[in-house]
Amino acid sequence: MTDPTPEELRERIGAERAELGRTASALADRVDVGSRARAARDQATEQVKTGVAQATEQVKTGVAQATEQVRTGVGQAQQLGGEVLNRTAGTAKQAVDTLDSALGGRGRTTLAAAGLGAALLTALLVVLRRRRK
Fold it and tell me: How many Å apart are CA 71 and CA 68, to the nearest integer?
C-alpha cells in the first residue's frame, strides 16, 4: 500500500471537515430548544387551523341541512293547514245546510252559522297551536 500524496490528504481532510461541519450543525439543531419549540408551536398552530376549518365546514353543512329540513317542514305544515281548513269549511257548509233545512229558512240560520263558524275557527286555531308546541 502506498502512502497518500499530499493532495489526497488535503482532499480527505476537506471531506472530513465537511462531514464534521454537518454533524456539528445537526447536533446544534438538536440542542437548540428554542428553535425546536417554535417548530412544534408552528406545527400545532397549523393543526388547530386545519381542525377549525374542518369544523367550520361541518357546521355550515349542518346548518344548510337543518335549514332545508325546516323549509320542508314549513311547507308540509302549510299544506296540512290548507287541507284542514278546506275540510273544516266543507264540514261547516254541510252543518249550515243541515241547520238551514232543519230551521226552515236562511234568516234563522245566519246567526247559528256565524256561531258555528266561530267555534270551528277557534277549534282549528287551538289544534294548530298545540301542533306547534
Answer: 5
CA-based nearest residue to 59, from 51, 70, 48 = 51
Q: Which three cell numbers stand for residue 49?
A: 387551523
Give per-residue pLDDT as tens, 16-53: 999 998 988 888 877 777 877 888 899 999 999 999 99
CA distance 113 to 94: 10
| Residue 87, C-beta contacts closer than 8 angstroms, at least 6 positions apart | none
Tens digit of pLDDT for each residue in 101-126?
A: 776 665 555 666 677 778 888 888 88
The CA–CA distances, whole Å, from 60 to 8, 63, 64, 96 equal 69, 5, 6, 53
Mind giving me the DSSP string for 40-89? Answer: HHHHHHHHHHHHHHHHHHHHHHHHHHHHHHHHHHHHHHHHHHHHHHHHHH
C-alpha 75/C-alpha 81 separation (Å) is 10
Block residue for cell numbers 439543531: 29
